[in-house]
Amino acid sequence: MLMELRASATYELSVETFLALMIEPALAGPEHRVVDERLVTSPTPFSELDRDLYGNPRRRLVAPGGTFRLEFVATVDAVPNRPIPPDAAQVPPREIPAEVLVYTLPSRYCQSDLLARMAEGEFGGIETGGGRVLAIAEWVRRHVEYRYGTTDSLTSAFDTATERIGVCRDFAHLVIAFCRALDIPARYVSGYALGLEPPDFHGYAQTYVGGAWHNVDATFEGVRPALVPIAVGRDAADVPMLTLWGRGRLVEQSVEVREATSPPAPADSGQSSANPHESP
Amino acid sequence: MLMELRASATYELSVETFLALMIEPALAGPEHRVVDERLVTSPTPFSELDRDLYGNPRRRLVAPGGTFRLEFVATVDAVPNRPIPPDAAQVPPREIPAEVLVYTLPSRYCQSDLLARMAEGEFGGIETGGGRVLAIAEWVRRHVEYRYGTTDSLTSAFDTATERIGVCRDFAHLVIAFCRALDIPARYVSGYALGLEPPDFHGYAQTYVGGAWHNVDATFEGVRPALVPIAVGRDAADVPMLTLWGRGRLVEQSVEVREATSPPAPADSGQSSANPHESP
Amino acid sequence: MLMELRASATYELSVETFLALMIEPALAGPEHRVVDERLVTSPTPFSELDRDLYGNPRRRLVAPGGTFRLEFVATVDAVPNRPIPPDAAQVPPREIPAEVLVYTLPSRYCQSDLLARMAEGEFGGIETGGGRVLAIAEWVRRHVEYRYGTTDSLTSAFDTATERIGVCRDFAHLVIAFCRALDIPARYVSGYALGLEPPDFHGYAQTYVGGAWHNVDATFEGVRPALVPIAVGRDAADVPMLTLWGRGRLVEQSVEVREATSPPAPADSGQSSANPHESP
Amino acid sequence: MLMELRASATYELSVETFLALMIEPALAGPEHRVVDERLVTSPTPFSELDRDLYGNPRRRLVAPGGTFRLEFVATVDAVPNRPIPPDAAQVPPREIPAEVLVYTLPSRYCQSDLLARMAEGEFGGIETGGGRVLAIAEWVRRHVEYRYGTTDSLTSAFDTATERIGVCRDFAHLVIAFCRALDIPARYVSGYALGLEPPDFHGYAQTYVGGAWHNVDATFEGVRPALVPIAVGRDAADVPMLTLWGRGRLVEQSVEVREATSPPAPADSGQSSANPHESP
Fold first, then answer.
1. Do B164 and A117 touch (CB under 8 A)?
2. What CATH class does A93-237 carry?
3. What is the pLDDT of residue A276?
4. Lowest-pLDDT range of A122-126, C23-27, C62-66, D255-259
5. Which of D118, D143, D162 lies at the smallest CB-CB distance from C114?
6. Which residue of D has its CA nearest to A18?
7. CA dist B64 → A57, B44, B243, C91 (Å)
8. Which of C83, C112, C93 has the alpha carbon at shortest distance from C174?
9. C5 close to C72: Cβ distance less than 8 angstroms
10. Residue B175 backbone phi and psi in degrees, to 5
11. Mean pLDDT across the stretch B26-33?
12. Cα distance from B47 to chain C (closest Cα, Å)?
């Protein structure tokens, strides 16, 4: 499926500021193929690419004080999202690969230690494996109300387990916390998705069953078509779209995702010198 | 039923200290009749009786620095605890008496506002009235594990809703929070009970249905026999056995409750000048 | 000083709803004299007056489903707010009146138990009495940034002690928590004040030193002129302007406070049948 | 300085359990040289060595249900701990190495985002660099009381900033959170130290100034001699001595650290078949 992504944001920076961006579809592999991609940052062009602790590519740049604007446009050929096979087997902890093991432990927003009894009580009676993950996702979808503006950057899975309202990030954190509480590796993915209302960046979970990572999006009944990942981490704290060392104020942000029926429109290079970069 | 109560505690006070005690069975009425009661505080005798915000009698005294010891012994003729009639009607908010209305609002350990969706989700489908209260108590009893030493004075109903482990105080707070979230007045009672293991002061809930307060003790399957109330409040924060303005350290505390088969033993007046007081 | 107050709010109620209002200047005494007052609620007229646990007058009414609007207009002759005398003596706990003692204990938003060491560390070296209260207020004013929209109904003194940003309610909670941690009775007051930007209901603290309650408003350098109290309680949880048992949505709210130079304008009785009531 | 370390623990496992151990001095380099080391786990011998996300060596093993005991004994030649040079320069964010950048971000127990204003208020006026880190450590040492048994695994830097009591872990978390809030990379180290009372595993901070990591131990006035690191991470959540997937109960644990004056005593191989392993 051909998808067109567009994301832009404007910041006011009081002084020269170091920034790191994670905004581009970045996990290679079967999930998607980037057909065309353009990132424009102005007035500063992109400077350097590195990788974070989880292996996510990250763009580093230094922007002068004043208005900083970024615009990203891409066309992606995405593989349709697949459901988790209910019979995918849970991997015994001892067989979990070393680099996956970290995703069984509690993290800032996914306090799986505190949710252990609740997870056992709600899902302990369901057979392990893909079916148990599906039951967790379904429980979260049915028990938590999706409503914009009800939660904030302090809200954690521990809160959502009781407050039962939130946005995609909160849904993902609760799925992750329940999975980890039952020794199922689970991680957070920031990305792009079709069909969000209002349009925004998306956050969803991935769980490791049957020896592979599978998408879990509890904000959607059934399987949300076409999820395009940007970065993975233990929870949303690890994968901010933009990190800013110093003071800055977000003035405006917008995201658009749609099925591409025509070649993507060019980025608005307006007052700045355009500075296109291809992703690796 | 004739019950014998004995409670004692020893504190080390670094300086002269003002204390307030709520330790004596104090609500008159049908629930119990105090046959015999003795309170010994040493070295300081009891000084003054007043009432707190909720109408609970409270003994005030000033103890010199050093070891402060209190011992309370009573024989009480308790009316057997009765179950809530399942058909007791929920009182519409507008008909709730002015002095009861405060028990529909959130308090420090019973954040009914935050538990509103969970309460609605779990109990919204059950007919209102006594039956709904019984369903709440049964849910708490089945979902929360009773285990000593797992929670502390910071633990609230919000925590217990997810952590699902605790002691009598935590059980009561969760029952209260769920009830208030559904507009059922509910309050916390500190008191004495038969059959606690290990023996200790007890905490349980009361809910207002059918125009009267009814005991709810979710730590017990069925109806715990003979609850003897000391004081009521919005939650445990309101009804401490002893409040101490200043620094002091609890050295030892013990509680005994049993069916009386003989007249109560005399208080140990040991090294102090005994100072017996009858409750009003 | 002659002040003109005007407060209005509109709610959408999905069903017939029981409401309680605390919106009128209500503490008699030297602080103010109500010259003229009008409360219009539509479509439902005011029905009943009672008192809450703290003695605050409270108006109860039942509004039908649909739009509910209230408008309150008053002219008040307010006594200028006075500073706390620095030499007002701290009242030893044992001499605190029974009805004041509750204001030395922790409450939902003022966890004075958790702030005890911080309070002792910051203010323990300052002489007790009015001067210590003034030092607390000054500390809060200097260390906490006043900014609208940064905190919400979950924010407590415990949070503000570290986050150091908030609105009047947060300033008051922190002052109260520090005072109680040092055995100084302190309570929360909702009311009206001159000079708020943007105009809104106000919240401030009162502390009990020298045998009387004194206003403490840490959002203002020096002494804010003319505070008109509505209700007092342990913290903001006790004194909501409007409590609503059931579902309802606030559509609009506005508050105006100014020095009166002319008789107050009549309430807008618009589409509803006007229903004026005088306060007692 | 020659140090002798001994750590042992006993667990009751209800079923066959997968475990990961991080207990051996593991960072090579100038800090220490392991002279002799023996790890005995019984009944199961050590099985596999891998590395965690932060590069810490980790021993994996599968223990049968029943009593599981581990004993570790080592002699280490430790380089004396050095103070941070006050004139070590703060590294501008843009020059922080990619693998260090993660240590500028908030984590579960070190919520540097929430402490930003407090950090700026307390330390913003102090010149950047090593001197600022020393000021932070000194502030924590003076404002937080060290007392065993006052905090637990839920306690975070956000709590300690206000509660001002705790153990080494809490001291380290607060130092780390303040440093990160001021863009100074800071991480948590679990390890062994001389002079702890009671003897236990130790936790302390490392901060990155002047282009290198430096130890910061706010539980000690001046410079604690000889710190031997086991593992590093964002906070204590990352470096547990033992992680256990499944149910298990710690029965006993002990740690001994002393200056070695003689060769280390042999491990007690008691009822189990001894199974010595050398670290790499």
1. yes
2. alpha beta
3. 32
4. C23-27
5. D162
6. D94
7. 68, 7, 15, 18
8. C112
9. yes
10. -60, -45
11. 69
12. 11
Q: Which two tokens stand for residue D159?
A: 């709590």
Contacts of C243 in chain B (CB under 8 A): 105
pLDDT at residue D272 tops 70 = no
List all chains that touch chain C, counting a touch as 3 or more CB pairs closer than 8 Å. B, D
Q: Given this model, what pLDDT does residue B86 score?
A: 95
What ipTM does this complex have? 0.87
DSSP letter assigned to residue C65: S
d(CA B225, CA B98): 31
Residue D267 confidence (pLDDT) above 90: no
| Residue pointed to by tokens 């407090």 | D118
Alpha-carbon distance of B90 to B94, in angstroms, equals 11
Residue range C244-255: mean pLDDT, rounded: 92
DSSP output for chain B: -EEEEEEEEEEEESS-EEEEE--S----STTEEEEEEEEEEESSPP-EEEE-TTS-EEEEEEE-SEEEEEEEEEEEEEPPP-PPPTTPPPPPGGGS-HHHHGGGS--SS--TTTTHHHHHHHHTTSPSSHHHHHHHHHHHHHHSEE-TTS--TT--HHHHHHH-EE-HHHHHHHHHHHHHHTT--EEEEEEEETT-SS---EEEEEEEETTEEEEE-TTSSS--S-EEEEEEESSGGG--SEEEES-EEEEEEEEEEEE-SSPPPPP--TTSPP------
Give ∠ CA A52-A55-A58 in degrees, rounded to 5.
50
- Where do we find the tokens 């026999």? B225
Cβ pair D2, D260 in contact under 8 A: yes
Three-state SS across B215-279? EECCCCCCCCCCEEEEEEECCHHHCCCEEEECCEEEEEEEEEEEECCCCCCCCCCCCCCCCCCCC
Burial class, B261, CB count within 10 angstroms (exposed 0-12 / middle 13-18 / buried 19+): exposed
User: Quick check: B158 and B183 in contact, CB under 8 A?
Assistant: no
Q: What is the dihedral of CA B33, B36, B41, B42, to 10 degrees?
A: -170
Looking at every residue in chain A, the average pLDDT score rounds to 89
Cβ within 8 Å of residue B212, ≥6 positions away: B88
> How many whole angstroms separate alpha carbon D4 and alpha carbon B35?
66
CATH class of C93-238: alpha beta
Burial class (CB in 10 A: 0-12, 13-18, 19+), A253: middle
Contact C205, C187 (CB under 8 A): yes
Residue B34: its pLDDT value, please?
87
Instruction: Chain B: list its partners (3+ Cβ pairs within 8 Å).
Output: A, C
Annotation: CATH topology of A2-79+239-259: Immunoglobulin-like (2.60.40)
Interface of B with C (CB under 8 A): 18, 20, 50-54, 58, 60, 62, 92-94, 98-99, 101-102, 104-108, 111, 113-114, 153-154, 183, 237, 243, 245-246
Q: Cα(A151)–Cα(A170) distance, rounded to whole angstroms?
A: 8
Instruction: Specify which of A205-214, B36-45, C46-55 reaches the highest per-range mean pLDDT.
Output: A205-214
Q: What is the β-pairing status of strands D17-21 and D242-245?
A: antiparallel
Helix (H, G, I), strand (E, B) or coil at D272: coil
The pair of structure tokens assigned to C95 is 């001499």
Closest CA to C44 of C273, C277, C197, C233: C273
> How do the domains of chain B map onto residue ranges?
2-79+239-259, 93-238
**CB-based contacts of D99: which residues, under 8 Å, 6+ apart?**
A53
- List the Cα angle C220/C223/C227 in 5-degree steps: 90
The residue type at C259: E
